[in-house]
Specification:
There is one protein chain. By secondary structure, this protein is an alpha/beta fold. Helices cover 64% and strands 9% of the residues. It folds into two domains: 142 residues, NAD(P)-binding Rossmann-like Domain (Rossmann fold, 3-Layer(aba) Sandwich), CATH 3.40.50; 127 residues, 6-phosphogluconate dehydrogenase C-terminal fold. The protein has a seven-stranded mixed sheet, sandwiched between helices.
């Protein structure tokens, strides 16, 4: 390669200086944007308006893509850039909203508050000015004192202990206290709370892990129980913190979670077990892997990096879930004859039938997975 000429060096310096100046302008504009966001936060806090406004964000992205095309810029690049900016803005707003309480004088008791999920919610309530009390399994001798004048009791305990804990705590609760559970199974806990507690009752299921640091766009399923009007302040508080609330009956929730959680986790477990039994050399497979294989293997590996007892509770939680998983195993076994007879045509027929059933979602899945793959390629 030839050395840079004096003429080149002279021209490149002025161009780079101009680029540096533009970068400074961009940073200045981002700072100005953030200053306006601060004003928006104050207004939202004043009027108890949620951080996340999906229609506003999508409308903005659509406009920016159109403007990018007119400016001869890549619309996908512009969308990626602004998704990052908008997320950072939401996180900043959410962090400040954590200091705004819908009912700041309310007293909160979290049973299991020493666990990861319990600590997460305790931190959110404390930042918003609530008085938070924690009841652990060693502190039941203080239950009377801890339950005095509380407005909300949250159960953040393992699934198999939830119903027993409900029986234990209800005698200490005022009939006006709002009772909530956070378990990933809703029908039986909700039924137990309704039978045991005469006051307001509702079920929550946070659809995120204990490593979450913000409620920004995190989904929480709410299953109504009794006196929904007296539970509304809690829903508003979660929304104010940035959560997306999905209303569902307990029965609908449990049926869907059978597929979303139990089946997905069990399928990952089965894949991991098979790799283990075949002594697959994971490091070697990664050397030859496509990004989609790495992504799929990453989800399997993620499962085995976590607590086995937690996943056993989710997978074995109900007889309906166990029945679903047995149906899944039977479905896999039904393919044995196709493999034995090398019946490619049967495979194609089944494939096409299933593809038709997936319908438009397949295109959506292609777009979303391509986005994730591109991000994975950038990272590795």
């Amino acid at each position: 390669m030839e050395e840079n000429t004096p003429a080149f060096n002279k021209e490149i310096i002025s161009l780079r200086t101009h680029i540096d100046h533009i970068d400074s302008q961009i940073l200045s504009l981002l700072a100005q944007r953030q200053a306006q966001v601060e004003k928006v936060v104050k207004l939202k806090k004043k009027h108890y308006i949620p951080v996340y406004h999906p229609a506003r964000e999508e409308d903005l992205i659509s406009k920016l893509r159109t403007q990018a095309e007119k400016a001869n810029l890549d619309p996908d690049f512009m969308e990626d850039l602004y998704r990052v900016i908008l997320r950072q803005s939401r996180i900043k707003q959410t962090d400040q909203m954590e200091h705004k309480g819908v009912r700041p004088n309310a007293k909160i008791l979290i049973i299991g508050g020493a666990g990861q999920m319990g600590r997460f919610f305790a931190s959110l309530f404390q930042k918003s000015g609530y008085e938070v009390r924690i009841l652990t399994k060693e502190g039941w001798n203080k239950a009377t004192e801890l339950c005095k004048n509380i407005d909300l009791c949250i159960l953040s305990v393992p699934i198999e202990k939830t119903e027993n804990i409900i029986e234990q705590i209800v005698p200490f609760l005022d009939p006006k206290t709002l009772l909530v559970d956070l378990t990933s199974v809703k029908s039986e806990p909700l039924k137990k709370m309704l039978e045991s507690h005469p006051g307001p009752v509702t079920g929550f299921h946070p659809l995120f892990g204990s490593t979450t640091t913000s409620l920004d766009k995190q989904i929480i399923v709410v299953t109504p129980g009794r006196h929904s009007d007296r539970c509304q302040w809690l829903v508003e508080q979660l929304t104010l913190w940035g959560a997306v609330i999905v209303q569902s009956s307990a029965e609908e929730h449990d049926e869907i979670m059978g597929f979303v959680q139990a089946l997905r986790h069990f399928a990952s477990f089965s894949f991991g077990q098979f790799l283990y039994e075949k002594h697959a050399r994971i490091e070697d497979t990664l050397e030859f892997s496509s990004p989609i294989y790495r992504l799929e293997l990453g989800m399997v590996g993620r499962l085995f990096a976590q607590d086995a007892s937690l996943y056993s509770e989710i997978i074995f939680a109900t007889k309906e879930r166990r029945r679903l998983l047995k149906d899944y195993i039977a479905s896999l076994s039904s393919h044995l004859e196709m493999l034995e007879t090398n019946d490619k045509q049967l495979f194609i027929e089944k494939f096409d039938r299933i593809a038709q059933w997936f319908g438009p979602f397949s295109e959506q899945a292609m777009r979303e997975s391509t986005f994730l793959i591109d991000k994975l390629i950038e990272r590795f």
